[in-house]
């Protein structure tokens, strides 16, 4: 049972440092690392349009459709629903990992979903970037510009993407706060090391 395992959950929005902090924690404390994004493509191979409509839609969309052709609210709705659907795959994966404590990170870890699985040996935090910080970090990533070049209007597609993720951040933060779960807001005023040490203390390391 997942509730009987030792699990450290790190959710939140993109470009907040989730992946880096999770990797640092795994290396520092000798626990397994499960990054949701690394398993998403594998999960997509097992979806049908009837059982997992959002994930199926994501798997068939072009970059232009994903970030330019649709309204931001529609992008956000599909984004959230795809995470809801993928979370069931994540839980199935984690249920098979019984050998070691595990740190899990990813946008898929919506507070409302994770809260139902929190057990005695679980710790959780959601890392939320400010919109300005998130835009700055996204702009530094080479791969995002490769994606944007495949859209009709790269500048507008980027703004749509950032608007969607800013709304997602607000959604996650509000949900976590309502559930009285831990939130760390990242705005660039603290170093990655300081944020890591905060989470170490939070997890009781």
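^ structure tokens above, recovered residues below v
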């Amino acid at each position: 049972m997942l509730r009987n395992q030792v699990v450290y959950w790190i959710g939140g929005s993109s470009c907040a440092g989730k992946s880096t902090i999770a990797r640092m924690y795994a290396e520092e404390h000798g626990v397994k690392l499960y990054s949701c994004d690394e398993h998403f493509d594998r999960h997509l191979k097992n979806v049908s349009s009837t059982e997992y409509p959002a994930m199926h839609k994501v798997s068939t969309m072009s970059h232009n459709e994903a970030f330019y052709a649709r309204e931001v609210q529609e992008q956000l709705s599909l984004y959230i629903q795809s995470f809801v659907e993928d979370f069931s795959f994540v839980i199935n994966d984690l249920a098979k990992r019984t050998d070691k404590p595990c740190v899990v990170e990813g946008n898929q870890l919506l507070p409302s979903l994770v809260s139902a699985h929190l057990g005695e040996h679980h710790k959780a935090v959601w890392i939320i970037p400010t919109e300005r910080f998130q835009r700055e970090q996204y702009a530094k990533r080479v791969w995002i510009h490769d994606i944007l070049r495949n859209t009709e209007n790269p500048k507008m597609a980027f703004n749509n993407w950032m608007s969607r993720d800013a709304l997602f951040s607000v959604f996650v933060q509000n949900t976590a706060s309502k559930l009285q779960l831990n939130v760390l807001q990242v705005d660039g005023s603290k170093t990655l090391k300081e944020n890591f040490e905060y989470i170490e203390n939070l997890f009781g390391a």
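Residues 2-202 form a domain with the Rossmann fold fold (CATH 3.40.50.300).
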